C-alpha cells in the first residue's frame, strides 16, 4: 500500500472491472488509462466530486500502514508537501494536518481533517472530513481547504487483487477558476492512484493491530 501479473490474471481483472466500475447514477465518465478509471459529478458551486478506481494486489493492513505513514505521504499523494497526526482520538480515529504545494502562482494550501476507518461485510472503508478548525487555526502563508469529504473503499477479490475506490470533494478556496480546480482534481486523483500502486508493495507483509485479515 508484486505488481507483476500474468496475462490470465490481467484478463480476469478486465472482466471483473466492468460491473465494479459502472458509474452510479450521476457519475460521468472522464477517462480510463493504465488500469485507473476516473469519473466525476457535479457537487456544488460548479465544482465537481471525483471518483477514482483501480485493481491492485494489497491487503487492508498494508494499505492502512501506507496511509498512516506520514513520512511517505508526499511520495504518493499528489502535491502533498507534509502531513502530521495531531491527535489520535481512538485506534481508528485521527486528526490530521496536511500541507499542499500549489503550482505557481497559486498560494499553498493546508487541510485539517478527521479520519475514521472500519471493516465490515463491504470491505475496508476509511472516511475523511473536516475537523474543527479551532484545533489548529489558519496558518500564515496557507489557504485552508474546507468542505472536505473523501472515502477510501477497498474490497478484496477472489483473484488476489483488491478493488480500490476513492471519492473526494474539497473546496480549495482562493481565486482559482472553477474549471481549473476541476481539471486539477481529476489529474491529481489519477497521479495519486499511479503513485499509490507503486508504493503499496513494500507494505504487504505488514500487520496492523486493528485489522484481522
From TrEMBL:
Keywords: Signal. It comes from the Bacteria. Pfam families: START (PF01852). InterPro entries: START-like_dom_sf, START_dom_prot, START_lipid-bd_dom, START_lipid_transfer. The keyword Signal applies. Residues 24-205 form the START domain. Residues 1-21 form the signal peptide. This is START domain-containing protein. The lineage of its organism: Bacteria, Pseudomonadati, Pseudomonadota, Gammaproteobacteria, Vibrionales.
